Amino acid sequence: MRKWIIAALVAAFVVAGCKSTDTQEAAPVDEGTSATAAAGGAGGATTSGVGAGGVSGTNLGAGAGTAKVPPATGVYTRRIVLFDFDSFVVKDEYRSTVEAHAKFLQANKSARIALQGHADERGSREYNIALGQKRADAVKKVMQLYGAGEAQIETVSFGKEKPRAEGHDETAWAQNRRVEIVYVGE
Fold first, then answer.
1. Which of 80, 82, 152, 165 is deepest in the core (most CB within 10 A)?
2. Domain coordinates in residue numbering, the chain
């Protein structure tokens, strides 16, 4: 009898130990707009935290800004950062765009963005997913240097799965090597 009680207690502790203790709420993801579905089911990168439901986060206090999306004027209309071939270095010509969006995030603590990294069609799927992620992370790092909060920025890579320009030449490839700045809630 005593062995049964001990076994039951051990089983209860094991079950309790398997239960998640994370207090953060998971961000809802609309299955119809996941990265895999957006890539036409071609096995594109998947993400959590970016979708129709938005990005979950913590309340940043009463002093937090209230605007979630910048006005669609001036520098805020520029939402694409282009990259050189096989590179994830943010070019100087895009610094003002990245800085403006970072300053908006700094002033509006409730605003959230997704940085979507992309690559051209050359290279393997795995290589391009990694390169797209490095590009998104590079833009995130620059934004953080300009004052944007880490919790405000999600990064995701689509690799070569979502080309901006169709074609198999340098003109198309140059447009596909990019990071897109997408405000959550737009």
1. 152
2. 23-183
